Amino acid sequence: MEKRVAITGAGIAGLSAAIALKNIGIEAVVFESAPVLKPLGAGLALAANAVKAFDYLGIAKEVVRNGKVLPSFTIYDQQGKVITKNESLQLNEKYGTSNLTIHRADLHKVLLSKLDKSSIQLNKKAVDYVKNGDEVSIRFQDGTSYETDYLIVADGIHSPLRKKLLPDSLPRFAGYTCWRAIIENVEPGVVEASETWGTDGRFGIVPLANNKIYWFACLNSTQDNEVYKNYTIEDLRLHFKDFHGSIPAILKKTRNENLIWNDIIDIKPIHQYAFDNILFIGDAAHATTPNMGQGASQAIEDAAFLLSEIKKTSDFTVAFKRFEERRLERTHYITNTSWKIGRAAQIENKVLAAIRNMVFRLIPDGLNERQFKLLYNVSFDN
Ligand SMILES: Cc1cc2nc3c(=O)[nH]c(=O)nc-3n(C[C@H](O)[C@H](O)[C@H](O)COP(=O)(O)OP(=O)(O)OC[C@H]3O[C@@H](n4cnc5c(N)ncnc54)[C@H](O)[C@@H]3O)c2cc1C
Burial of 159 by CB count in 10 Å (0-12 exposed, 13-18 middle, 19+ buried)? Predict the structure, then answer.
């Protein structure tokens, strides 16, 4: 009898997992809480490991076609002096795939195009589950339920099902808040991805396809800060007016209606992703701060590792456990490292910032190289 697999959440993790299952002929049912699928108008950096994972799922070419290959990534100080620079194109050659940027909506379009529309049910917010023997019954907010053999939970950082199984796994605030937007490129066109680590805040710029750019600005803050909640572009313009290069022009070009604001949060690493026939993936399992551009990338890797394991055995409880064994260390490393990078990037004290910049400038190439190797040299078949 064919296995029934249900997925909660039609984000990058849920859709990628559905594509992984489709690779072995299983049509999973995806339950999404939103009434319409409307991804945020934000950009995403997809690191080379994510592109490799898409390749494993058989859809890399289409994703790459919709994105932009990054030539380089530079970190500057507030005055525009280089702290570190990575030539992404050289890394691309070395690791065989590209570091990519993509509009989130374009990525969603590609993922959705690989699935049968009837397999995605909207307006279905999973709020609980009950185990009935070998089956799982998912309970939805609208009072309905759905019985399945296997449940993949991909409903993001606030996952109610994770909170039920692991009540202590609550999102934690990283200490800074962030605005972001996508706009048309400014003159002269921005070509490289960059971050500026100022003592008055951090500003990132990421070029996207079709002459667009994605920018983000992070400020140290208390959680849910009332002042920042009401910040407008004008406030951000004033705040970042002394920053170097295109930053003031980028803010000048952005309209309030394009601004997205949220506090930066993650989940302190948890030590179990597989619970018999229930598996947690993506942000529901290992949400990370965005400082390494690896949140979505790890969600996509999850789908590739899942495919690798379900190809080996018809017992998915075994596959889920093996998945967990292969994913814990890597995802913990990313969450912890990204947390530390965020702390360093958000330093406001001028003396400490100068020391940080000096230390980063002195990091030997070999150490950077080891970090890239660890991130990008991922292999799904073992
Ligand atoms: C400011 C910022 C910048 C980022 N930049 C990058 C980047 O450059 N590169 C990168 O790789 N990552 C980045 N990330 C991280 C990335 O956005 C996430 O890791 C990624 O979106 C996780 O995908 P997901 O599918 O696991 O979760 P989500 O994207 O949160 O998707 C979860 C889905 O489940 C649905 N849902 C929620 N609750 C329920 C429920 N109870 N029942 C059913 N459905 C439900 C939601 O509506 C949603 O569709 C960034 C994050 C932030 C906050």
Answer: buried
Domain count of the chain?
1
Integer Cα distance of 263 and 223 in angstroms = 7
Which structural domain, as residue segments, surrounds residue 334? 5-171+266-376
CA 19–ligand 1 middle distance (angstroms): 17
Cα of 43 vs centre of ligand 1, distance in Å, is: 12
CA angle 311, 93, 206 (to 5 degrees): 90
283 CA → ligand 1 middle, Å: 6
Residue 284 C-alpha to ligand 1 middle, in angstroms? 9
CA atoms lying within 13 Å on the CB side of residue 46: 30
Nearest to 197 by CA among 179, 214, 172, 220: 220
In a domain, 84, yes or no: yes
In a domain, 244, yes or no: no
Q: Is residue 178 part of a domain?
A: no
Residues with CB under 6 A from ligand 1: 8-14, 31-34, 44-45, 125-126, 154-156, 160, 178, 180, 262, 282-284, 290, 293-297, 299
Render pLDDT for 77-95 as a digit per residue (tens, 0 to 9): 999 999 999 876 666 667 6
- The widest CA-to-CA distance across the chain, in whole angstroms, is 66
Task: End-to-end CA distance of the chain: give it in Å, rounded.
Answer: 28
Which of 16, 30, 33, 259 is the best mutation target for the ligand 1 pocket, counting ligand atoms within 8 Å of the beta carbon and taking the most? 33
Edge-to-edge strand order for the sheet containing 193-198? 82-86, 73-77, 193-198, 201-208, 212-220, 171-184, 260-267
Per residue in 300-329, pLDDT tens? 999 999 999 999 999 999 999 999 999 999
- pLDDT for the residue numbered 88: 67
Q: Is 226 among the domain residues?
A: no
CATH code, 90: 3.50.50.60
* DSSP label at residue 296: H
Instruction: State pTM to two decimals.
Output: 0.95
